[in-house]
Amino acid sequence: MDEFSSYQSFAQVYDEFMDQTPYRLWGENIRQYLRKYKVKDGADVLDLGCGTGRMTNLLDGFGYRMTGMDISPEMLEIAAGSGNSEIFYICQDMRELDLLHPADAVISTCDSLNYILEPEDLIQVFVRVRENLKEDGVFLFDMNTLFKYKTLLAENTFAEDREECSFIWQNFYDQEDGINEYDLTLFIRMESGLYQKFEEVHFQRAYETEEIKEALRLAGFEIREVVDADTLKEPETESERLYFISTINHEVDK
Prior knowledge:
The chain is an alpha/beta fold. The chain has helices at about 15, 25-35, 55-60, 75-80, 120-130, 145-155, 210-220, and strands spanning about 45-50, 65-70, 90, 105-110, 135-145, 155-160, 165-175, 180-190, 195-205, 220-230, 240-250. It contains 7 helices and 11 strands.
């Protein structure tokens, strides 16, 4: 099982199928929290698991100096050709994150961190973020909830048919190990006008909220807030996605 072999053929059509995603609203929410925790406009911000760079470009437009990092060359190729040429993109495994200069903030959206399948690897990612964050920096990320995997995704099949591309998404959630498998079948229209079939398998892990909090603590972070990413209020049993906002716990260093 390789959680990092995803987003090859799907990279070509990812933005088309994500066109209903409220990136603007998400970006404004992120800016609200960055300002709340004293990350000023113009600060250096890393977008961890940036994909095709939609959020990276949005935050760049807000005035942040953006770096985008992803493990998928296919996604980064699209990101690099879709926005500000001054944005610096890095192809890197987030478990081995190594920036040239520490960031004022690290953000991660679109459940990128759910692709980390092992709890010890999640801690490792958080450790690398801490090592690449300024002493007064902020770490803000979202993750899908256990409720979403167990109830909404579960054993369901989703399909969508468009002129340029279509997909069938078969979903399998294993409650015993918490691993969610997405089997994607893509039909992408080529320049010839014919459709080519592609198949990909993606894996994500459902983490309990307390597991994520403990991983942050073990990595040396102080948790400031955990909120429902849609309402920005206290999480509820049916929350689908959560924001975690944390800062470096300097007591750990003493």
